[in-house]
Specification:
Helix content is about 35%, strand content about 25%. By secondary structure, the protein is α/β, with parallel strands linked by helices. An eight-stranded mixed β-sheet has the order 1-2-4-3-5-16-6-15, sandwiched between helices. A four-stranded antiparallel β-sheet has the order 10-12-8-13.
Length: about 400
Amino acid sequence: MPIKNRFAEMHAEITGWRHHLHQHPELQFDVHETAAFVQNKLAEFGVDDITPGIGQTGVVGVISGKTNTSGRVIGLRADMDALPITEATGLEYASKSPGKMHACGHDGHTAMLLGAAKYLAETRNFDGTVVLIFQPAEEGGGGGREMVNDGMMERWKIDEVYGLHNAPGVDVGQFQIRPGALMASADEIFITVTGRGGHAAAPHEAIDPNLAAAHVLIALQSIASRNIDPLAHVVVSVCSLHSDNDATNVIPQSVRMGGTVRTLDEAVRAQVKDRIIALATATAQAYGCTADVVWVDGYPVTVNAAANTEYAADVARNVAGDVEDDTAPIMAAEDFSFMLNERPGAYIFLGNGGGATVHHPEYNFNDEAIPAGCSWFAEMVETRMPAT
């Protein structure tokens, strides 16, 4: 693998940072120790400007190239937060925080961007400015949205933005990417079906919301099979179903269900929302009940700009020798989508090798992927803003 020699030399050091971060996971916006670690490292590297508190607890660092005749500004992003999972890896550097672990590899993403930052601050072999984005709350908190809403793109005049995520099951150091929709939108639905409670021995005197809710759940599965183009990607999953009591001889007054909706197209996303509301309302009504539907907007579709995808793939080829540049999209979501909605850019997957998948208590980021990830970050800067 033709990685940059400097990252081979720094591999043990960057791995040490990653292990430290792995031992001290923090959730969503409560990443104060992680953000402080990032700030200290950036200061140690001689990064020109360091600004904490963007998007609540995000950190932004700026490195100027040897020259700036291009005037171009490239953003590189890594996420910092962990997950509320109890670690089961048995590693000597396992989480020291009960009920929290880096089960998605954000410790690796942060360490790799720090490695790239150290190299870029040392060499400055580019013409323009690089903005280092260390983001909180990717796991459900919308930290990317909050950083954008804080004016990050305008404040630092970012022209293009790039990010990566490790990919279990893909050979270590190999890259996957595609233009267009790469990852799905993720929205939440909450449906409350209300009837009239009563004694279970006299159902004719009640209006059973359980029956209505069961038919609502089944009806929702017709959206993907009967309302949406079969070539489109749609997931409607009801993941929880609860009545307002646990008694076995009481017909409840109401039933509440919750779930997630995933799509790869914003028009389809809007269509699914309309159908959920219509189906839930009409189906509940058919059984004498009412349905209140709450739709919570989550992460948008992660869409790679065509030109920027080509740039990112070319750099990946330089690093790894080959890249899968038309990989299949996945129905997981990513709040880097908020940044891509503001600026052209691309998101790429980096192979993590075998082992447990992300969001699993036995998952662990593969340190052997570090040189490839660091090289990709650094070369994106040097390729898009070549030294004059």
